[in-house]
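Hi R.,

As promised, here are both runs. First protein below:
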Amino acid sequence: MRLKPLLQVSTPHPVSNIRLLRLDAATASLGSADDVAFLRRRIAAQERHHEFWAANNADFQAQKAAFEQQIAAESGRAASAHELSAFYRQYLERSRARHAAYNRALWRESAAMLAPGVRLELRAAARAATELLADARYAARCAIRRALAALSVSDGMYRAQGVSVR
């Protein structure tokens, strides 16, 4: 019997553009404690990514709007692609330290989740292999039973089923 996945994935969030994860309560109770703990850790990490990118993107949009208003007030026109490019370069320079700290935390978190994630995948593969082996054994037993039933030997001769002998 196959279970539906333990994690549900949302559509991208409109501000952070991160696909949020949710643990399905109905199937979570069927997973091992280690698997559920790893998935909860993964969800918490995804929430931190969402918080960072939601704040980052909101900050960027606010600064971009202020820049565009400043250009409109000074020159009475919309900001050109060149001006927006210069603004974006400056924005990236101002947020470099914050992005570097986020990137370091992301790598640290990903490295810490690597071994538990591999263990989860190996357990899932072992369960799938066990299910496959059980299905193959069942199919083999059924085939042997059918063959023995067809070759049921009472006098040492094969008798076709459903055929009368005269």
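And here is the second one, sequence first, then its structure tokens:
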Amino acid sequence: MFESSVGQRYEDSPRVIYGAMVSTYPDLEYIWVSRNDQPLQANPNTKIFRRLSFDYYRYLVTSRYWINNQNFPTYLTKRRGTAYLQTWHGQPIRKCSMIRKLYQGRKSGYLKWVTHAKKSG
């Protein structure tokens, strides 16, 4: 399941990863979250759903992979067996887990909030 910019755009690292995966594994089923029906059907196995729709949640709980450049809703916890690749568009957050001082000025609980979905239940 791919999502970029909270479903607003077909761009950034999720788009590049998606393109590489479709080229390498064209027969897999792909799910894109979009507010405006992008991407155009790059292959017949790509399904497009609106963010926060019934199908959005259905595929979140059944997808083997989550690929996103922002956050999925913070009230979600990924199921065991799902891999979550977070590419962090425009944020130095991937370095922040090692450098705590970069959290200065953030609300308490920020690190827990941004890392919640990666945990298995």
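A quick note on the second one: The beta strands are 2-3, 30-33, 46-49, 65-68, 83-86. Let me know what you think.

Best,
J.
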